[in-house]
Amino acid sequence: MPPVLVAVPDAAWVAVVTLLVLQAGFLVPPLGYAIVMSRRVLPEPPTLAALARALAPQLVAQALVLAILVAWPACVHWGDDAATQAAPTLGEDEVERLMQATPRATPPP
Fold this sequence. Notes:
The chain is 67% helix and 0% strand. The protein is an all-alpha fold.
């Protein structure tokens, strides 16, 4: 990840793309972790073709989202304005007062 973050200036976009790729890898037969674990507990594991047919809609949807993110990287930030407006802006004095008012955790005896 560090080399990618150095090459691409948008860390949020890199994080979203990475999570989508990791999620797809979790489901891709025959070596996806979820597939291996579920096949292990079933009395008769499904065939690879049946697995591929069952997972195809999910993987196609993920590939479509990934393609959209690659084509329009700015879509990762579409909700940023709303999140920024919803967050209160506190001055340094207010932050310090809140920090002082927060009870401190005491170590166990």
